[in-house]
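Notes, Module 5: Reading structure tokens.

Key idea: the token line is not a picture. It is a compressed description, and you learn to read it the same way you learned to read a sequence, by spotting repeated patterns. We will look at two proteins. The first is printed below with its tokens.
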Amino acid sequence: PHPLAVHDQSIDVQVCALALTHVRALRQPVTELARVLRPGGHLILSDIHPVAVATGAHAFFVRPDGSRGVTRNEIHWTSEYVSAFRAADLMIEQAAEPPFEQSFVEDMPDAAIRDAAREAVVGLPFALVWRVRKAG
């Protein structure tokens, strides 16, 4: 991981969306995000929920040539986020766990996958969304 090209304590609000699921450990990147936040500043962080990762959710994408690829997601349990936030002097203000909804499943292009997903994932948490504030 590389340091952010941002001065210490220079950001009031930052967003980190669906990125930390691709790192092996949370502490260093969370510490780096906290470094650039002003005291009282907020971080909104979202990631794939660990239950979704544990049950096979990974980042699928289409390459420019039309072939498909996958980037593996790492499982980060809620306690790992809490520990990383505490170590970085970030206070949790809110956590949300939005579930897979029926509409998400209905948008899947393959009928067999749609049928399986209806039974397997609707109602399970899909994302983990945090709002934290830097102490100060």
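Here is the second protein, with the sequence above and the tokens below, as before.
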Amino acid sequence: VLKVPTDIADPAQCQRLAEQTVAEFGRIDVLFNSAYDPGSFEPIESADMAGWRRAMDVNFFGTMHLTQACIPAMKANGGGSIVMIATMVEHKPLATQGGYGASKSALRSATKHLALELGQYNIRVNSCHMGWMWGPAVEGYFAWQSQETGKSQQELIDEVTRSIPLGVIPDDGECAKAAVFFASDYASVVTGAALDVNGGEFMPI
């Protein structure tokens, strides 16, 4: 395991990460783009656009920086897989998350273009659109909402799970398995695809 603390909003740090990875392992096979900034939770009407820019710098531009840094190694290796960790919010808007959703929607468009451009190099580019995903970020969100609304965290969780057919908030480890599928040879001819991983809360027609 090689750990390289990296601010993906900085192209130079992304390049350093890619170079150190190749120096340590000799290749880059898979890139999971999962770093994110949720922006500011507030209505668009009164939103501070600085929060939107911060989210765009990490979620969109930062992801593009790191992707660009890793593509040369994948080309040299004869192929690879890039997996974008996206969000259900792109398909099903959630109040106060406009900035986050906008940054991820821009990334979804770029993902399709990347899949088109990189296919000739046997580099696949796909995205997993996560819904509610139990982990530190969602735990923190429920704690904040509990303080704001006066409702218990369990009441808030129950409100969310009522719209999830499987009846639970998916665990982040379970959601990760979907991303691993895209990275693996099981998806060797899949590119430009978007997989919804949300317990059935959003089902595209």
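Summary for the second protein:
- The longest strand covers residues 80-87.
- The helical segments are 11-25, 49-76, 98-118, 136-149, 153-161, 172-183.
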